[in-house]
Amino acid sequence: MARIIFTKLTKRGLSSRTRDNQMGLRLKFNLVLLLVFAIGLGVTALISYDLLHRNARDEVMRNAGVMMEAALSMRSYTNTQIRPLIPYSDEVFHPQSVPAYSATEIMTSLRKKYADYSYKEATLNPTNPRNKAVEWETDIVNVFRNEPERSEISGTRDTPTGQSLYLARPLQIKDKACLGCHTTAAEAPPAMVKIYGPNNGYGWKHMEVIGAQVVSVPMALPIRNANRAFYTFMISLSAVFLTLFIILNVMMSLLIVRPIRRMSAAADKISTGDMDIAEFSENGKDEVSILGKSFNRMRRSLAKAIEMIDKA
Question: Which domains does the chain have, with CATH numbers?
């Protein structure tokens, strides 16, 4: 009689609740794991994307800085090494002796291989018409003229081939010798006036900002490389998570779910009055082993209690 009463009391409770809890354990674990991964992946994506694109911009800026320093070196070389060998005269004017001309020519040769790279000495009132500043370059020059403390301006702009980063530095008349060619047409070398005319490139003043050196470097390739690195990193990170997800699920199945399932099955048998089940291993000190020990004690206690009631 005691065994029948015990069976009725426990069959609807212990067995069903244990099974329901056990069946939902893996799902809860996976939902928490997926949530943690989603948050981690999102934060990692934001940080890595910003970092990679910032590095791409820094790389472009370094390239622009190298081009700017190369142009300055060309100007310096022309001014100190070439110009003394080809002095100005009334009969012949060699534009190759002009620093701005030589720097522009060499950079133009560079564009034969790197078409998207450019260098220009954008001037408001240039002697050579090809140096005439366009609208956006004029804005940069005016910033330098209005803010004498500014030594450099950089930014990005859209071009037909994609985004391009520009680096600009002011062109200021610091050498009074330059005014010999640019004060008035009457004072300029006649040979130069004959080539470029009497209307452009005159009226310059000492320490006046007359233009800006502008270097433009394309951002398309560094951005593509940054995006490729970003996608590769995120795919690799997802693959690592997937691998960990599988490993953790296998370990959870072996170390937690399977032992709990065995205990649930044992509890189900006990709830029907079947006490003839093998005890669980009591080796180990983890939570599952402790639970097994407690389950064994509970089973033995129930068996003794039922035996004592039957005898009574």
Answer: 2-49+228-311 (no CATH), 63-219 (3.30.450)
